[in-house]
Sequence to fold (348 residues):
Amino acid sequence: MTKNAIYLLTITFVLVLLSFAIDRNKTLTGIKKGIRMFVNVLFPFLNILILISVFLYFLPPDIIPKMLGSGSGFRGILIAAAVGSVSLIPGFISYPIAATAIREGATYSATAVFITTLMMVGFITLPLEMQYFGKRAAVLRNFLSFIAAIIIGLLIGYLL
Amino acid sequence: MKETLKIINRYVPIILFGVFIVLSSAFNFKPGQIMAGSFEKAFVEMISLIPCLFIIVGLLDVWFPRERVERHIGKRAGIKGIALMVLLAMLQAGPLYGAFPVSYILYRKGAGARNIFIYLGAFSSLKVPMLGIEFGYMGWRFCIARALISLPLFIGIGFLMEYLLRHRNFEVMNPAESGDGPLQVKGC
Fold:
């Protein structure tokens, strides 16, 4: 088990104990809810892990470092931003992908840009967004979020 | 029909992959074994992180029900209003387009352009369930750095949107109520 998993397990354990001490029934309902949610995402999650494993095998080992690695510079950030903007991947699935990308040689900057655009910029959902906020507001929001994502990536690269 | 398709989407890949792996190890098929190796690693990582996260999310759900926070929206202005928006967004889960109907509700409750776009920003990048997954996969440094950099940026976006839309009558519509019916977008 990784260090992160052990931290998380400890935090969960403390929170459950704390919650249990305050209200036994509420805690049980909460845990049940959590387990139900887990079961709901389990298969979509497994399918993504399968996809990653198959994809990784066929992916030439130097392509991620070349496109998103430290030598890729601003172009790598733009590639990550473009891919993140047009993909429609649920957030919880983007993290195994991001972690794999880093392991394969992507920079923190490019990965942060990918995650952020994935979450904040939705090219495919833009027509839907326009129906809610109007054309101008929807386009503006996506455009500003795109810029913000690149700033976030650059700052993360600077910090980490 | 739709239900069957859903079931096929759900279970068929894992069954096929399972059969493929068993055959690969039986016939010593190298590519299959390599894929099985990376799948195993990814699976162990997932199973050691995700169940804990969902238990935390479940607890959060019973201790801080969204409805209670929602009740205060629109009544508070200024910093308190912004903080409330961020808090409400953090308690949600799901994809961004799931937040659009919620912003319609917020709009009806009196939230303006600034707070609605702050809500969307916080929703897309500070949801607690997602932060938890991020923490597990990317480590606390990445998670905290990304969250802390994002927060001021999307508050800025909220102010900027308010400024840019100041001469227009900003309103949030509900396509589900208008004649055309909502646009269907698939995903989870």
Helices of chain B lie at 2-26, 30-63, 66-70, 78-90, 99-108, 113-126, 128-138, 140-164.
